[in-house]
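Contributing: when you submit paired examples, paste them exactly as shown. First protein:
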Amino acid sequence: MDLQQIEQEALHLSKDERARLVKQLILSLDSLSKEELRKAWLQEAARRAEEIDDKLLSAVPGSAVLSKARAMVG
C-alpha cells in the first residue's frame, strides 16, 4: 500500500479515529532528529504547495484557520 492509498483510507475514518491517528503520527515524529524533522516538514510543505498549484487543494487564509481553531477550543 502506498502513501496515497493510506491517506485515502485514513480519510474514511471517523473524526475521533483520525484525531487518534494524527496524535500517534505526531508522537512518532518526536523520535526524529532535528534535521530529519526539518526535512520531513519541508517535504510536506512542498507536497502541499504542489497540490495547491495543481488545483487539488485550495489555500485557506491563516486568519480563518485560527478563528475556526479558537471556536473549537472554546
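Second protein:
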Amino acid sequence: MNYNNVDNKEESLELSVVIPVYNEAKNITQTLLALRQNIAIPHEIIIVYDFDEDTTLPVVRSIKDDFKNLTLVKNCVARGPSGALRTGFVRAKAPRVLSLMADMCDDFTQIGKLLNLVPVHADIACPSRYCKGGAQQLNSNMYLKVLIPRVAGFLLMLFAGIPTYDPTNSFKLYSAEVLKRLTLRSTISFSVTLEIVVKAYLLGFRIVEVPTVWYDRQHGKSNFKLGRSIFAYMPWFLLAFLCGRIIRLPRKWIHKLFGLLDKPCGIEKIEKT
C-alpha cells in the first residue's frame, strides 16, 4: 500500500517525519521519493521552512498532489534547523518522530531498522557516523567539520557516559514521549539534537546507536556554520559534564540551570508567535 497517497487520520499514523529545509529545490523531490521507498507504515511528512522565498517551496507545491501525507509548515520558533525541528516536533501527531535533512546525505535504507528499535528496545535511535562500522564519504575538504563532532562525541561518551559517539547527527528516530517530556531551548544551528540526547540520557531514557554512512551532498550548498554551532552546543556539553562520571551536581540545581521537565517542547513559545 502506498502510504504517501493516503489521507492518514491522526489515530492511524505510526510515524511523523520532520524535515527542515533551506533552499533544497534540487534535493527535495529525490528525498521524498526515497522516503516513499523506505517507509512502509502509515506516516506523515512535515516540511518546515524559514522564509517564503525558500526555493524548496515551489517544488513541493508542484508535487504535493502525489504526497497526500505531506504538510508545509513555517518555522515559528527561531530561524535555522533547531527552530525548524522544534516547530516540526510540536506539529507531529504520531507516536514516533523521525528527523532528517533534505540533502540526501543520510542512508534512508536504515529507517526500517530504526523503526524496529523504537519504542520496543529504545526511546531514541541514533545513527552514528563515528561508531564501529560508521563512516563519512565526503567529496570536499571538510576536515574540521568531521573532526570536531567526532572528538566531541568521544569526549561525551568518555566523561559523561552519553551512549552514542554521534549525538549531534540530525538523523534520529525519537519516541514522541521523549520529546513531550523535555523543555527544549536551543535555537541555533543543530544544537537541539545534542540538547535532546543529553537531557533524555539524564532522565533515564534508553538511547541506542547504530552505524551509518553519511554521504556528501550532490546538489546545493550547506548553510552549516561551524563556529556558531560550537557556541550553541556548549550549554549541553556543560550539562552533560556536570552530570557525568567525574562531576555530578544535585539534580535540583541542574533543573534550575538547564530545565528538563518544565513544559512540553516549544509549545508555549509557538502559541505566542
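If you have annotations for the second protein, write them as plain sentences, like these:
Residues 143-160 form the longest helix (18 residues).
Residues 148 and 230 are 9 Å apart (CA to CA).
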